[in-house]
Amino acid sequence: MRPARLGLLAAVSLALTVGLFTVPVLGTAEDRPIRIGSQCKWDGLDQSPLWTGSGVSTGQTLVLMDTGARKLLRYSMDGRARAEPPGPLAKSLTDLYPLLVATRDDGRMVIQAEGNRFFVLSPTSYSTESNVDVLSRKGPGGSTIERVLTWAPVGKDVVAFASVRTPKGEDDDVSNDGWSSGIVRFSLDAKRGKNSGFQFVGSKDLPINNTSRVYHRLGFSYIAALGNSAYVLLMENGAFGLWKNEEGNKLEPMEALNDENKWLPLSESLSTLASFRANEDSVSVMKAVEEASMPIGLYASIHEGEGFLYLLSRRPKDGKTQWLLSKIDPKQDQVVSTVVIRSRANHLFAIPGSQEGNWTFVEKGPLLGLKEQKVYGILTIPTTSMLKAFDRAAEKRDGGGLLDICK
N or C: which end of the chain has fewer CB within 10 A? Predict the structure, then answer.
């Protein structure tokens, strides 16, 4: 069966699977369910997004993608609303269905809209420097990218988990009427033009219903980048693994997360995700996620010239969710240490900050129904304090117990 193009209904479906749809409720201190340590700060947002699942930090400005309102929302780092971005961007987003925003190494922002279109924006003027419709890109065998599920900017490229279609008769391995899944890489460099096509960096014939695709449909941040290298989370056979893609090469497996599966096994209950078909399934799907043990996001950040990956995970504990953040050294291919994020939010996503700035965690409540999910607020921690917490956790890694990132 042909997957539907990403129109308004499908865009709502995609975001709902991530638990992103929110009502415009003002965050207050009363929303914060627990006390936090001295190193962290919690703030409500005085302009709550209708629907958000991604954001970026640019200096002292926090930018959230509000897909419900079709615009970028800008805040101070303590949650105070700032003026909308200047220029014609607002009208462009109003005419589209913007989904996610991320930043490149050079500071430029990248916006995904309608599942297959990407914009590169100037970090100062918010003007559009590049506009790429990946539907126009041809890959091996005349294949086309029909929908990008998850992605990350990698230099001037994008590495993505995508739904791909290959014309019948041009690939003997194609099944499902030419539909499959795959990890792809394509350029956002306007000078290279639409004829640059795209490349498969992993298997191009993953079944359309393979386990990794089920997870990547959620829209969580399962791809991150350091320099020209991309890192991808894939889930198979009840476990998750980390894979690396360097420019010009295929995906290669890493060993870093092999031991993590012992204490963070993928929950069998997530078979519910495979049954997601329509908006009315969203509540049951996200309820399954809330009760699950699983990775929620993969992020990357450079400190003092060294790049590290960070894995955000959730697992049930004492009837609640324990949120964990693991620091990964990709050069050593190992987990450095893991800390606890003291949050009782039902859903959480991270926005990495610079070495001089802050990391931000956006806290959200349970999905209750269409347009019924509350944004609690934002939890921020200075990057320097976070790194010290990981150093302390590494020193006592074999001593039992997990350290609180906020203490």
Answer: N
